[in-house]
Amino acid sequence: MLTVADILGSGGSIARRLTNYEARPQQVEMAEAVAAAIAAKEHLVVEAGTGVGKSFAYLVPAILAVTEPEAETPESAAAEGGDDDVAERRPRRIVVSTHTISLQEQLLGKDLPLLKGVIPRDFSAVLAKGRGNYVSLRRLEAAAMRGGSLFVDAGEFEQVRELVKWSKTTHDGTLADMPFRPSPSVWDEAASDSGNCLGRKCPRYKDCFYFAARRRLEHAQVMIVNHALFFSDLALRRQNVSLLPDYDVAILDEAHTLEATAGDHLGLRITSSQVDYVLSKLYNDRTNKGLLVTRHLAAPQQEVMRCRQRADAFFRDVQDWFEQWGGNGRVRKAGVVHNELGAALAALGKMVRKEGNRIKDEVERQDFTSAGNRLELIGAAIDEWVEQSAEGSVYWIEAEQKRRGTRVTLAASPIDVGPVLAEQLFARVKTVILTSATLAVGRDASFEFFKTRLGATKARGKQLGSPFDYQRQATLILLEGMPDPSSQREAYDRQVSKMVRRYVHRTGGHAFVLFTSYQLLQRVAKELEASLGRDGLRLFCQGAGTPRHQMLEEFKATRGAVLFGTDSFWQGVDVPGDALQNVIITKLPFSVPDRPLLEARLDAIRQRGGVPFREYQLPEAAIKLKQGFGRLIRSSKDTGQVVILDPRVRSKPYGKLLLESLPDCRVVVERVE
């Protein structure tokens, strides 16, 4: 019987394949813990420090579990209760979910191909993508035929023609395989869509890229997905629908992002532009284009115009309420605006479906059915938002200025995703593995904050340190004499610029400077850009228009580079080697309760007699601070410094917990001159 040590150990199959392979005890220990959790049908939370090699540590036991022979001998099968019992013990399918595309690419392009070569068992691993990534050949053909009634811009016609050419040569029929990015209006007419699918009745069913991918998924033993698709599937399962095949084990990597992702996908978002887009797809009076025009349906066209008037009035009322009473946008009671829009959209949806039922052509009829269903769903979501009918949710408004006016968003999210996940995930899936480099808080490595927030209260917790020698590789610099950012904000902001300049010069650039707000980032950038340039250091600023991935690549390729970043650069960024030798943390990453969802979560803690700062903001900040620190050391050869400019890490009682949560490294205290 194969064990994880046979694959990952010092004399294992990977070591025999790779000449420079170094076995890591922490990796084997994690893999054994994952294997034990799968065998015992238990949930497990694992914090594995940077360099442990988490992906091999969960992929190897997962692959061994789904490929374990059902019965070695008739005698052993009988002893275990027969083949059926053994089949029940062995997982049939495992899903691995990640937050970032880069980790997915690593799993599919590097890790799994290597493991296929060193594990002496056949297994299949497939990347699962959301349905909207696939082209529908039937819908694309229909869009090409009816383009005159659907599209206005000549560029859209050209894109449809290019898509038709591409569809004849593509390997998988997804957006990732395209040489160009079609406009949303074009792709909306060509994408695979559950509401517009004829299934086996479709004339292109045998050629369908989506169903071919679905068949591969059904036969796959390991599915790779992202968190967005995983939680979209979980949300639909509450309605007895699913995007993914059933699975026995879920492994969620980059698990520190799960609460935010789950909240996004278990709530709702409706925008004014979304309503306008759906109505325009049916009938646009300015261009005389749309689905209804193809059938010359005057009555539904008039109803579209009435719905548009109601939509304009409704979203204008929402915007007026927001500007007068909204504050941070949170809506604390139901019925703050009069709502005729939800019912009007539902009525229009029924009318469109009724017209579709008169159409003999099944393909065209399905377009009407799909459009009607979409209208009813949007109408129901608007009613739910106005009535605040989802118990335990927080509701809010967002307003964003766009080129053509203000886009208003109606949003809602569960205040606490823990109970939902406890019921929908942990109670239904035999084994859930949650892992990241940053999940535990404090010297005693407590997982209570993380487990409680996600509803994983019965999961076992295991912390594994990094194989890196932080005492040798990293120095943590703390400052004495900095103003307090909470009571001396202006003085603190001024001093930040001086200290950033001091410490980026110490390493000749090669530095990340992490901020908690764009305002301070922009202020410091404005003050230092010219002087850094004179000193031969090139400054990259998040928010300046360069895409994040491109900025990172330029940073790595530029000698003496300094990168100013906010939230997204605290985590999920990997810059090994000499390019990054210095991480400067300008302020402790405490969340500010100025956003409705966080405000509601803190209110809920307060209402049950808890202390929000101690129970939520402090452990959350500890985890994020670990993420920021973790940008520095990405390999056993990396060295450098982390500088924390915020004096509260030493002056406040809670600073001890924050420092104890960081890797054990050399600490130096320097004075502000």
In short:
This protein is an alpha/beta fold and 673 residues long.
Note down, in words, how this protein is organized.
By secondary structure, the protein is an alpha/beta fold. The chain has three domains: 4-124 and 418-464, no CATH class; 268-414, Four Helix Bundle (Hemerythrin (Met), subunit A) (Up-down Bundle), CATH 1.20.120; 470-671, 3-Layer(aba) Sandwich (Rossmann fold). The chain is 48% helix and 14% strand. The chain has 28 helices and 18 strands. The strands form three sheets. It has a seven-stranded parallel sheet with strand order 3-4-2-5-10-1-11. Strands 14-15-13-16-17-12-18 form a seven-stranded parallel sheet, sandwiched between helices. Helix 13 crosses helix 14 (258-265). The longest helix is centred in the middle third of the chain and has 28 residues, at 298-325. Mean pLDDT is 91; it is low at 72-87.
